Amino acid sequence: MVFPSSPNTLEVATAGEALIDLIEESDGRLRPCAGGAVYNLTRALGLQGVGTLYLNPLSKDRFGRLLAEGIAQAGVVLARPQPVHEPTSLAVVGLDAQGKASYSFYREGVADRQVSASSLISDCAARPGLRISVTGCLALVAEDSTKYLPWLQAQRAAGQLVVVDANLRPAIVPDMGIYRSSVMAALQQAHLIKVSDDDLDTLGVRGADALAKASELLAGTPAQWLALTLGAGGAVLLARDGQAWHSTETAPVTVVDTVGAGDCFLAGLLVALLQRPALQRSVHADELRLDAGDAQHLLAHAVASASLCVMQTGCTPPSLPDVVARTTAHPPVFRAL
To answer: Is 13 helix (H, G, I), strand (E, B) or coil?
Structure first.
């Protein structure tokens, strides 16, 4: 079996985990859902109309076929369309009373880890129209840094916009010190960093509050931009020159669960960025400059994308018309900090 691919013009390459979330139901049963942070992001981009290339292979097993169906439905192109024999990664997901997710992972000898730095680099080089490269979450573990770090370096050198979502998962690693170092090494290659307030605490960044910690993290990297998610408190976009903007919802959000919320937020941010004239004018990612109007557009679209996700069970990324309809009917509050 060869998985299908899409004819869309490719603008974004994603690399990282694709797995099955086994979500614990109230009666103790486990419900399988296609997931993984990078997989969710990839689908969310495709469902909002962005030509997206997913760089990791999928398994030939039943769960791999389920993941491939989601990829195909989103119009995403598989760089490695031939399925592999290794099994699909698994994550057991527990939800607390507020719908917040916690994870346990099973990822030894699995399909999505069957990549190398050379394959990632060559697959992107074969697609000269790519403008953005994204990774994060489980791809940032130290054991896989020899795969993803050289790829990030190559993409940055090629002039692409490099985006890294810290999205830390401490449950997967035995040594937090080594894990933090591996995450920080990836963030050093990013033009745009995405973190949550929880990520900042897990990284051990110092500061009086989440905004101060985010500013400290940004200052410790060459990145130009940092997007900080605050759950129900909205999100902040920080610029290297010290500017910062905050956006929050005005419409009610009934949270079913938070699975995939950050992934849909980042997808919405990148969708909005691709729409901005500033990106179109930038031949090289280092030349990208965003103003307050850009920031307002990016945050509104990203926050709405996340809100629509959390109102559904599991990661159910919204369509572009749904996000536009929400931001049009209920424009988020936006202010400079």
So the answer is: strand
